[in-house]
Design a protein that fits this description.
alpha/beta; binds coproporphyrinogen I; seven-stranded parallel beta sheet; 48% helix
């Protein structure tokens, strides 16, 4: 029997509406916090296959999710390219910022697979111990989002330094994006080789760019990555999550060649249903709804399920689970998705 997530991404009618949540492993889970406390830094967790595999499986065990998403981070790619990354407790990631063309020239793609070998080992271990109905999702950050952290040197709301660099040093920034595009495709293919059955590209900061910049730095690289993955492994669906792109979601859905499109919380589902045909949609429950009253939360789940009835759909959030989320709220969401009528998936 086909796994529900794979069926939905192929445009087939699954036995049930598949559900998984972005950031389903992480700080809101007591079993994650316990493991995290007894280990070194966050990146050490990502590079320690038995711990990373255990964390990947925690939400699958607890909730019976339809997918496990590899426990890692988008910033392991810059780390593997020689741009050192650290996670500062309570502050988030810090990177040695890329400030000029020379710094782009110093990046070393040759060492990528060697440094990321523990991540591939994690994928192998998870693949070997998944329940039969659960699919394994590999992932990477999209080139723009990863480059934005590399230039900024840390998280940001607006990524002004990265946007300035892209305009002021266009050739150098294009080289950085091109390098990340090829490295990201290589990285996703290596995850697939290790056992990932689906891959997702996170372009979390696509929404800070105006249209011409978004076409060049988000749409084009994502299209190239999807094409490379599809050419090498046509049986593996690709989901792209271009967060915050508004009406441009229609261009991404039409032009990427991806099987799944992740919708952020702001997307109107009636609009998406009309304008984003021919692709499986994923999303878009507001993570903040999980912090609110239970009856309103479950009504939101039913509203989303109803709006997506009869078309290929994967239930998810519109962004990641927040650390302050009650694990019981996640259980309630999964239970409510399971109770949605199966006709919801019939075309
Ligand atoms: O302190 C801790 O325990 C670390 C918290 C944490 C976790 C659990 C970070 C640091 N990353 C992760 C895991 C992670 N990150 C996953 C695992 C799989 C899952 O369960 O979904 C994934 C897919 C990511 C992806 C990721 N990392 C994104 C894209 C998705 C998104 O949320 O927009 C981004 C932007 C990051 C960067 C990052 N890593 C961690 C933090 C706190 C951040 C955000 C930094 C910032 O912008 O300030």
């Amino acid at each position: 029997l086909t796994k529900p997530l794979l069926a939905a991404l192929r445009g087939e009618t699954p036995a049930r509406i598949p559900v998984w949540l972005m950031r389903q492993a992480g700080r809101y889970l007591p079993e994650y916090r316990a493991l995290r406390a007894s280990s070194g830094g966050f990146l050490d967790l990502c590079y320690t296959p038995d711990l990373a595999a255990e964390i990947t499986l925690q939400p699958v065990r607890r909730y019976g999710m339809d997918a496990a998403i590899l426990f890692s981070d988008i910033l392991v790619v810059p780390d593997a390219l020689g741009c050192e990354v650290t996670f500062v407790e309570g502050l988030g990631p810090r990177l040695a910022p890329i400030g000029n063309a020379a710094a782009v020239g110093r990046l070393a793609p040759a060492g990528l697979h060697e440094r990321l070998a523990p991540v591939y080992e994690t994928v192998r271990r998870v693949a070997a111990s998944l329940p039969p109905q659960t699919a394994l999702i590999g992932f990477a950050g999209a080139p723009w989002t990863v480059a934005a952290y590399m230039v900024e040197g840390e998280g940001s709301k607006e990524f002004v330094q990265a946007r300035r660099f892209a305009r002021a040093e266009r050739g150098a920034f294009a080289r950085l994006i091109d390098l990340l595009t090829e490295a990201t495709a290589d990285y996703l293919l290596a995850q697939i080789h290790a056992g990932a059955e689906v891959v997702q590209l996170f372009d979390s900061w696509a929404g800070v760019l105006p249209e011409p910049e978004r076409e060049r730095w988000c749409l084009e690289p994502a299209r190239r990555i999807v094409a490379r993955v599809r050419a090498a492994r046509p049986e593996v669906p690709v989901i792209v999550f271009p967060r915050g792109v508004g009406a441009a979601y229609a261009r991404f859905a039409a032009l990427l060649g991806a099987q799944g499109i992740g919708l952020d919380t702001t997307v109107c589902l009636e609009w998406a249903r009309r304008e984003l045909a021919g692709v499986c949609l994923q999303g878009n429950l507001d993570p903040v709804a999980l912090l609110g009253p239970r009856d309103a939360l479950l009504a939101e789940v039913r509203r989303i399920g109803g709006a997506m009835a009869g078309r290929p759909f994967v239930f998810n959030l519109g962004h990641g689970v927040l650390p302050e989320t009650d694990p019981e709220a996640v259980a309630a969401v999964v239970e409510e998705v399971r109770a949605l009528p199966v006709e919801a998936m019939r075309r």
